[in-house]
Specification:
13 helices; 0% strand; globular; 343 residues; mainly alpha
Amino acid sequence: MKTKQQILKSYAINLAASVLIYAVLLYAMSSGSITRYLRGILMTIFINIILAASLNLTTGFLGQIALGHAGFMSIGAYSAALFVKYIESTGVVLLADGSPTPQGQLFFVLSLLLGGCLAAVFGLLVGIPALRLKGDYLAIITLGFGEIIRSLIENLSFTGGAQGLKKIPRLATLDTVYMIMALCVVVMFTLVRSRHGLAITAIREDDIASEASGIHNTYYKVLAFTVAAFFAGIAGGIYAQYLGVLGAANFNFNKSIDILVMVVLGGMGSLTGSIVAAIGLTALPELLRFIPNFSDYRMLIYSIVLIIVMIFKPSGLLGRYEFSLTRVLEGLSGRGRKGGAGK
């Protein structure tokens, strides 16, 4: 059991590392080192980290397969987009050069909260009946939910219908999205390490034993599912205000599978595994573009890599292990002391 001093030390180290990465990001942006292409990759990585980590709450920590995560993402995306399009009429969102004003940044955050809350409401409505059932029913219900949402988007006039929603104010900046992504990961990590997270994990390990020990299984199942939907809605809001245009095809079944692949590859039950997988699976196809004779086959190589990892590491890259920067630094300092003692 960690002491209070050890916990505070761990928080301080992780905070320092996050601030350092943020400082490097700001310097790269100010010096012009980050091109538009690289900015797109980084933005996609940040969005995918939120999506993969949030789905891991349901699939990894709760142990319930969900196949409609893109549906919650779409609710957050369209809610946030419609909100900022309405606010744009006031003229306080964007400057003449297209960059967001300080008020625009505030409305950007508010739009994400709105999208996340609406996605959470739908997650609650879907989760209450679905999570009372056992087996693979949740996967079937969430799959149907995702397809229903996609069909509604294509047939509603205020979402742009089949033509999509266009001229969305592009308020998502790289530095702001990084801070939001880091905050989302911290909140999810704190949840899974709390007593509520331990209760959710206990349900995954043994549904019957957890209920017999006094855990309200249905409550914690719905809680995990709703929180996962909330963060998917936030990721959708960022996605909408980065692209500036939305279409129902962006949130089809394949998108849900892409997110699930990140969770499985990183390790079901490891948030740091989801982060590593989101970075790797987003960057790998782009890196293969620049290798001679490989660019035409990059998606084939991408698929082969996934198959190899699943054959030799079926539990995922990290399994249920969480990478700890504190343990790494303690290990390095321990080696340094041993080396010094030897001299």
